[in-house]
Structure formats: C-alpha cells, structure tokens
Amino acid sequence: MNLDFYKGKRILVTGHTGFKGSWMCKALINAGADVTGYALKAPTEPSLFDMLGLASQMNSVEGDIRDLAHLLKVFEEVKPEIVIHMAAQPIVRDSYKDPVYTYETNVMGTVNICEAARRSPSVRSFVNVTTDKVYLNKEWQWGYRENEELNGFDPYSNSKSCSELVTSSYKNSFFTDEEYHKMYCVDAPAVTTCRAGNVIGGGDFANDRIIPDCIRAVSDGQEIVVRNPYSTRPYQHVLEPVMAYLMIAEAQYKDRTLAGSYNVGPDDSDCWTTGELVQLFCDKWNVVAEAAGCSAALNKAKWVNKHDGGPHEANFLKLDCSKLKTIFGWKPVWNVETTMEKIVEWSVAYLNGEDVGAVMDRQIEEFVGERLAQKNIKKDY
C-alpha cells in the first residue's frame, strides 16, 4: 500500500470536487497518477478542491453524472484504466428536501457510469463507492455484513441501495468475459462496490455534518448544536476509505477474483455516539488550538443538545469489516482520537491562513507510512 502502482496510471474519479474526492485526487496526484475528474463545481463555499488548486494539477472536467452523452465523450477521450465512482448527492436531510434529484444522481448516475465503463474497453478496474446506510437497518448491536439485505430507509440511503443493485445487474449482465471477448477481445474489468462508514477529516465544509458544524461554531464563537447526541455511528478518518478504495482497485486490477462488495469501516471501539464525538472535538480543540496560537481558540468549544424534530435518521449503525480484513489483511490505521487530532491540526492551519495542502501531504505520508509498518498488512496481493 505504497501507491507506487498508480504512477502513470490513467484514473478517472467522479465526484472529485467533493471532500472525499479532493483527498482522493490529492493522494493520486502525489503518487504520479494521470488523474481525470468528472463532477459538478465544488459543492461548498469554501471548498477543499478550490483551496488546494487541484484543477491546475489534473484534468478536471465539469460535468453532471446524469449526462450520459458527455460522460461517454470523456471516457472516449481519456480511456481510463481505473474508474472510482464517488459522485453523489450525499446528504440525508437534502434527500428529504429533493428526493427526485437524489435518485436521479445516485441511481441514474450509477447507470450512466456503468454504461460508460461498459463501452470503454480500456477500463480494467471499477470501484463504486456507496455507504454503510445501504443496509436494512434493524438497529441491532452487531455489524452488518456484505450479504445482509439492502434497503436504506431515507431517499439518500435507499438510492445508494439501488446503486448497489444497478452495479450488480451490470456486473452480471454485461461485465462478463463472454460479453467482452465478443465485443473487444479482452477480459471484462473487475467491478467492486465499497460501503464506507461515516467519514471525517480536515477540509469538509458540507452542511448537516457534525465535524463541519463543530468547526463553523468555534470559528464563529458559538455553541455547537447537536441534534441527536445518542446516535451511534462508525467514524473514520477520510484517508481510511480512500486508501482502502485504492488498495482494492489495485488488487482487483491484478487479480479479478478479488472483486466483490466490501464494508470499509473502523473497529468496534470507534463506533461513537455523536455526543461523545463532539465532546472529543471540544477536548482536543481547547488544548491543541490554543497551543498552536489559533485566534479562534479564544472561542472555547462547547456543545448543547438541541433536537430539532428533523426527519428520521438511524440511531445505531455498525459495520462488520471481517471480509476486508481477511482477504487483504486490512486494518484501520488511525483510531477516532488520532483522527480528531488530525482534524484539529488541519483546521488550525486553515483558520490561521497556513498551507493546508502541506498539512494534507504530511498526513497522507504519515498514514501510508503507518499502514506499511503494520506487520499484518500483506505487501503483495
């Protein structure tokens, strides 16, 4: 997991202007990959993508994942070897406000990316990123496995369940050696879906996400408002799933039998309630930010429980990642406490007007170094 494999590889990333997409592209650019991104303009203001100036470091294409004709044109021009699909409408509350757009983007967007990949014989490895919320949530205390029933409750979660089914249908119907040998005289590409737990990290400016809400509150000198402090989620640093996606994309590129569906989440010890997570942020912020001389550290972080009677959200959700651990020897690198330290480090640099790109370069290097140092990580697949 040293990213050397990606040097010179043609990679197409959808949703590259988002929070997770920006971290993905930063890691790939650092690795020397030939990166093309396909997405709408950055979804937030400010945005991590614009802050890093990534548009000048890669082939950044502005496009709507619902526009199949444009997507096909980009595939024809770029001829990607690896496709990582992350474009989505990702906010649960927004899916209640505009369910039609959510389904159009998350379901038909998946149809379009699968169709574009099907018509592009250059593609050897395809990873569709969904969410831990694809499962029928029974609020039980053990983690969901990849063979559990898919049926998300809200429009966002349900549309991602549909995205999983679309990918499975395309895989069974079109991404077969028989079909590809007939059309292109090559083997079919490897296709995997990844179901990631809640992702946190520096540079997320989205609405209705707990860590961005924390950063906005302390920078404005306000209390952090927590809607449901008792809901439990699997939290992980953004680099955990990003590096897992890249590991899987590389592995199945080399050995198609490794393709499938994988949960990507933290250990059970990092399933925290929202209240516990916010309190950890406050504790880290009130020590680290002040020591770093951050002007916003004068605003002591504190939070208040204010349930706003919003739409349904699951109270308990956990993933079983045994499959990923068994097949790849995978193991999370940073626990939630370390993750929060990295978030505060990034946020202090941002609020102090420092070079956040340099902070990300350092964190990526630290993460990859620590993963390579894990004795149970397989060096070859």
Tell me the layout of helices and strands.
Blueprint: E1 10-14, H1 19-30, E2 34-39, H2 48-52, E3 59-62, H3 68-78, E4 82-85, H4 92-97, H5 99-118, E5 125-129, H6 155-173, H7 177-183, E6 190-196, E7 198-200, H8 210-219, E8 224-226, E9 232-237, H9 239-254, E10 261-264, E11 271-273, H10 274-291, E12 303-305, H11 322-328, H12 336-351, H13 356-373
Parallel strand pairs: 1-2, 1-4, 2-3, 4-5, 5-6, 6-10, 7-9, 8-12
Antiparallel strand pairs: 9-11
Please give a structural write-up:
With 381 residues, the chain is an alpha/beta fold. It has a domain at 4-201 and 235-266 and 318-334: Rossmann fold (3-Layer(aba) Sandwich). 43% of the residues lie in helices and 14% in strands. The protein has 13 helices and twelve strands. α3 packs parallel to α5, α5 runs parallel beside α6 (155-173) and α12 (336-351) runs antiparallel to α13 (356-373). The longest helix is centred in the N-terminal third of the chain and has 20 residues, at 99-118. It is globular. The relative contact order is 0.13.
The rounded Rg comes to 20 Å
Unreliable runs: none
> What is the CATH H-level superfamily of one domain?
NAD(P)-binding Rossmann-like Domain
Number of helices: 13
Strand order, main sheet: write it out: 3-2-1-4-5-6-10
Give the strand content: 5-15%
- Give a short account of the largest sheet: 7 strands, parallel
Overall pLDDT: 92
Cα separation of the termini: 10 Å
Under CATH, the topology of one domain is which? Answer: Rossmann fold
The CATH first-level class of one domain comes to: Alpha Beta
State the helical fraction: 40-55%
The secondary-structure element order is: EHEHEHEHHEHHEEHEEHEEHEHHH
Helix-strand makeup class: alpha/beta
Query: From the coordinates shown, what is the CATH architecture of one domain?
Result: 3-Layer(aba) Sandwich
